[in-house]
Amino acid sequence: MGREALRTFARSWLPGRTNVNTRERLRAVAGAGLGLLLTVLILQFAGLDSDGHGHWLIAPLGASAVLVFALPASPLAQPWPVIAGNMFSALVGVACARWMPDAAWVGPVATALAIALMFALRCLHPPGGAVALLVALNHTTHFPFALNPVLADSVLLVMAGVLYNTLTGRRYPHVQLAPRTPQADARFSSADVDAVLARYNQVLDISRDDLESLIRDTELESYRRRLGTVRCADIMSRDPVAAEFGTPLQEAWALMQARGIKALPVIDRTRRVVGIVTRADFLRHIDLDHHEGLGGRLRDFIRATRTVMSSKPEVVGQIMTRQVRVSSEERPMVELVPLFSEGGHHHIPIIDDERRLTGMITQSDFVRALYRAVGPETGPPTPASRSPS
Fold first, then answer.
1. pTM given for the model
2. pLDDT in tens, 69-84
3. Which segments within the chain are labelled E, that is strand?
4. Which helix (H) or strand (E) holds 355?
5. Domain limits at 143?
6. Do 93 and 211 fall into the same domain?
7. Region for residue 51 given its phi and psi (left: phi exceeds 0; alpha: psi -120 to 50; beta: otherwise)
8. Alpha-carbon distance 39 to 265, whole Å?
9. Where a domain ends, among 227, 250, 279?
10. How far apart are CA 299 and CA 253, in angstroms?
11. Domain count, the chain
12. Does 137 share its domain with 270?
């Protein structure tokens, strides 16, 4: 075994860092203490002493308290595993103590059977194994022990957990949420998570919905980290082709066709944006219900009228969209995500500090920058020398 392999083996024995702040630690500590105290007081008040010697609690309940108050989101800490896992394990321990004379076998067999039963009943709870072992080793042979104190302790602890976790802002019971319908642009789906979990084939101490939420939140955090320093100026197409209010329709259409672009920002004499004209603006002025002769109707629409008076639009300013969303050069690229994904925008003009047009960002520019940011190459996208689109 090499030196590096030895270091790795040694590090595997060391505890990992717990990403829990002091407030959460104190919350768990106080909850476990108060939960067990409340359980004892209620049993004492009700006179439910299992053996007449003031033994209201069983030792494995301390482990249950750790799960209920420190790990309330764990599948192993939910009410059914706590109550059923402890109770059925106690029944298994009693049965083994009654019918297995060999003291060397009774403990291991009771624990193994308890785990098998908890798997079958979907109530896997680690302290349940301790309950079965405790009952078997103490040679407890009366089945009512599974009801009092085991069942009584478990029910009261769960009730205390519901009250305390709810008051301190923790969801308990931690109900499994229905899988969310993934967005069209999501990088993974709920089915992908299920497929990976099936291959993993091990018990996870985290609920499935929490795992999926953590993956999605981690992905979003990665986007923010990698895209947070990318500015609009880094990804925009510079010096875009533009039109003015009085640019003839035929000239604007020919310019869009020649450059292979779908939109033209409309500027005034100082290059300030006053609107935007897109192919959709042209097409909405002709009859699209009938496909026959569509090209001819479009040519008739953009052809300049030679008479003094005209009943149809003649210049870009008459068909442009006046309410245009613009963005500054220094604006972080990540802030444009809602505009493209939810706002229905396809082209966003970019302006400088004096509000003059300096560039254009299209969906293609945005997707290209996004791919560079989340792909194999790290670091912010660099401006590309390309014709505006």
1. 0.60
2. 999 999 999 999 999 9
3. 237-238, 243-244, 263-267, 273-278, 327-328, 347-351, 357-362
4. none
5. 18-167
6. no
7. alpha
8. 71
9. 227
10. 10
11. 3
12. no
